[in-house]
Prior knowledge:
Elements: H1 3-17, H2 24-30, H3 32-48, H4 52-66, E1 69-70, E2 75-76, E3 81-82, E4 89-90, E5 95-96, E6 101-102, E7 107-109, E8 121-122, E9 127-128, E10 133-135, E11 139-140, E12 145-146, E13 151-152, E14 161-162
Parallel strand pairs: 1-4, 2-5, 3-6, 4-7, 5-8, 6-9, 7-10, 8-11, 9-12, 10-13, 12-14
Helix pairs in contact: 3-4
Protein name: Serine acetyltransferase
Keywords: Acyltransferase, Amino-acid biosynthesis, Cysteine biosynthesis, Cytoplasm, Repeat, Transferase
Subcellular location: Cytoplasm
Amino acid sequence: MTFIGGIKEDLDNALAHDPAARNRLEVALTYPGVHAVWGHRISYFLWRKNLKLIARIHANAVRFTTGVEIHPAAIIGRRFFIDHGMGVVIGATTIIGDDVMMYHDVTLGAKSNVQGKRHPTIENNVVIGTGARIIGDITIGHGARISANVVITKDIPAQSTLESSEFFVI
């Protein structure tokens, strides 16, 4: 995918997921979740080129302007959409697949400070509701739907739907 093709894909993805989005120009100019993903792509590029300090500084600037904190080492697939964005935190060893949608105030965090993989893996086609906390080196399976305000610390099977009133994992 070309750089311009990726931008167009992100804009079209936002239009497909947000009924309030009216056109590409509006999304490009006013959607902080889209800006955070674009900023992450730059930070990730710098990180992979071993310009780690510059990548961290850039990521902090993106966090300051969008309210979304994504570590430059996090691996994010295509068509990732963060709706509203404010308060999202994505840790360093997080892996996010393609076609994932996330709402505001979500944490993909660690539960220890050991070396190695310590953040979640989110497979393709997952929706993560507002305020969800997904913590540790766990996997959220393909097509899962995570309700708002749940805390998840164990693997979730593919195609699962987790409602906040019925599911709270510690």
